[in-house]
Structures are given as structure tokens and as C-alpha cells.
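User: quick one, sequence for these C-alpha cells?
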């Protein structure tokens, strides 16, 4: 997060910087602690506010994938794996507590 930025505002800014995507935050999905790099990651469920997206200033390419087409071996960070699997676990639901690091 940047100074004077809420977590949701930070998520929206990151979506813009990475994929020029405008998103609508639904709710908090997970809080992951990544101690080896001194990070706490807040992961939100969100929808695209419009179908427009493209590589942002911090990305070389962007693409949407069907679940069956996700290139799992190419995902750069464990927390992306966790978030995708946690999202799938509660897909269509809003009655869940935020997840944390898997065992």
C-alpha cells in the first residue's frame, strides 16, 4: 500500500498498474504472511468493472484463463496458487471467513 491508501484502494491501484484493469472489490478473500520476504498480502475477491485490460507498466502480458487452462507451473508466487485455490473453494459464496496461509 502507498501512504494514505486503504487496502482496497491499494488492490485497485495494483490491478491498474499490472493490467490496466478497473476492478470492483467484493470482499477480503485471504491474508497471507510471507515472512521470508517480510510481507503480509491482503487478497480480495473482485470483479472486472469493464472487460478492458492490457499489460500495465509492471507487466509484459495479461490474459484471462478458464480454470482448466491456468498454467499452474508458470505462476510466479505460491500466494497466487493459494489465492486461486481459495477463490475456487468459495466461488459463488460470500459467507466465509478470510483464509490464511495453507499448511
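Assistant:
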Amino acid at each position: 500500500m502507498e501512504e494514505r491508501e486503504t487496502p482496497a484502494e491499494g488492490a485497485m491501484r495494483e490491478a491498474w498498474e499490472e493490467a490496466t484493469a478497473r476492478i470492483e472489490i467484493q470482499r477480503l478473500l485471504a491474508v497471507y504472511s510471507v515472512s521470508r520476504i517480510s510481507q503480509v498480502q491482503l487478497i480480495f475477491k473482485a470483479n472486472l468493472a469493464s472487460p478492458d485490460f492490457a499489460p500495465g507498466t509492471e507487466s509484459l502480458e495479461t490474459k484471462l484463463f478458464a480454470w482448466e487452462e491456468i498454467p499452474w507451473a508458470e505462476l510466479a508466487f505460491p500466494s497466487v496458487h493459494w489465492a486461486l485455490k481459495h477463490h475456487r473453494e468459495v466461488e459463488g459464496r460470500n459467507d466465509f471467513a478470510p483464509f490464511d496461509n495453507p499448511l
